[in-house]
């Protein structure tokens, strides 16, 4: 009996490691093909491909050098996240789902992982991105002090240096989770040492049926929760503004105006249910949480059709600081 159990375990381990090896090699072959196709534009290298029992499949140690740009972008790892290794294996059979199989192929959630994207804050990419941002907004000439030091139109490379940031170190995960008649999009994002954002957006409808609409897909917002956690950014901004000669009152007003500008870009004119908690947050809070609970699902693409001042009531938008 003991030999039988040992043999069974050995067979199971051999099957697992065989499937793991095949999956990682198949992905590596596909990545090598993409690396070759990108060679006219960038030199890309990576350390390897890893799959885990917990359902992650990632390309690790990615290094990108874009031709004509004198800096390297590094990515710790990039890949997908599922509930288990078995879920990864089932994704190979996803075509049978669309063919009408009753077998459950798609996992209960499916996610994307990208960790530790690093690049300098004063490099060519940052400079070009800032220039393009100003051009997009039609801004020319010198920028008003309060707008510049609070990043109303984005921070310039010199402003990043003044704030004490030498490099970006960004990570993000996004998961789509099936909930039957609804589905959720969960996001966790962090710029190390700066801010973290945790969000969950619940959308109406069956996830697979909605995604199958392709170009006709129009997500409908049912609930929204976004938690913004400040690690050191607010105080760095305030100190930078004060060094440029602004009083505490002027710094506070500039920060509020920058937030209102961000809302206007999204087609929202924030009311007191958001602005009052924001003022508390800027006065020493560490976390600001936004929630939206519309009376009925709202088609996201149609929000811009409403007057900006009507959007907070439409979404039942509020905030809480702590």
Can you put this structure into words, describing what you see?
With 322 residues, this protein is an alpha+beta fold. It has a domain at 121-321. It contains 11 helices and 12 strands. The protein has helices spanning 2-38, 85-91, 94-98, 124-137, 145-150, 157-163, 207-211, 233-243, 248-265, 272-282, 311-315; strands spanning 42-45, 48-51, 56-66, 73-81, 109-120, 167-178, 182-191, 195-204, 220-230, 287-292, 298-299, 317-321. Strands 1, 2, 3, 4, 5, 6, 7, 8, 9, 10, 11 and 12 form a 12-stranded antiparallel beta sheet that branches. The longest helix has 37 residues, at 2-38. It is globular and about 65 Å long. The N and C termini lie far apart (61 Å). Mean pLDDT is 90; it is low at 4-14 and 96-100.
Structure, briefly:
This protein is an alpha+beta fold and 322 residues long. It has eleven helices and twelve strands. The N and C termini lie far apart (61 Å).
Number of beta strands: 12
Order of SSEs: HEEEEHHEHHHEEEHEHHHEEHE
Q: What's the number of helices?
A: 11
**Per the principal axes of the C-alpha atoms, what is the gross shape?**
globular
What summary fits the major beta sheet? 12 strands, antiparallel
Q: What's the mean pLDDT score? A: 90
Distance between the ends: 61 Å
Please report which band the strand proportion falls in: under 5%, 5-15%, 15-25%, 25-35%, 35-45% or over 45%. Answer: 25-35%
Oligomer: single chain
The computed structural class is alpha+beta
Topology of helices and strands:
Blueprint: H1 2-38, E1 42-45, E2 48-51, E3 56-66, E4 73-81, H2 85-91, H3 94-98, E5 109-120, H4 124-137, H5 145-150, H6 157-163, E6 167-178, E7 182-191, E8 195-204, H7 207-211, E9 220-230, H8 233-243, H9 248-265, H10 272-282, E10 287-292, E11 298-299, H11 311-315, E12 317-321
